[in-house]
């Protein structure tokens, strides 16, 4: 679900690329607007969850020029001991 995420360090040795997780909710889209340039610079790949249709994904990709893949992020969030998004996983840390 969308919500507050606290910064924490992670072992990201198995993750060789920056990732971000968003939903199709208003808070996630506002967050994406704020972090768009940083995510582009990092060449991050986005996972989008809780999205109702493919057209929404395409529209967000076109607007923000970032790759977005529809993914069930529940297993990833459970592995990270996190319940909320939006978030970034990069450089050995998870943050919002």
From TrEMBL:
InterPro entries: Integr_conj_element_PFL4695. This is Integrating conjugative element protein. The lineage of its organism: Bacteria, Pseudomonadati, Pseudomonadota, Gammaproteobacteria, Legionellales. Pfam families: DUF2859.
């Amino acid at each position: 679900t969308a919500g507050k995420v606290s910064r924490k360090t992670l072992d990201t040795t198995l993750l060789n690329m920056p990732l971000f997780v968003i939903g199709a909710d208003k808070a996630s889209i506002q967050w994406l607007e704020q972090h768009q340039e940083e995510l582009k610079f990092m060449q991050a790949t986005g996972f989008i969850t809780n999205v109702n249709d493919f057209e929404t994904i395409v529209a967000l990709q076109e607007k923000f020029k970032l790759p977005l893949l529809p993914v069930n992020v529940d297993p990833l969030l459970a592995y990270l001991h996190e319940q909320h998004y939006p978030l970034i996983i990069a450089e050995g840390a998870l943050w919002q």
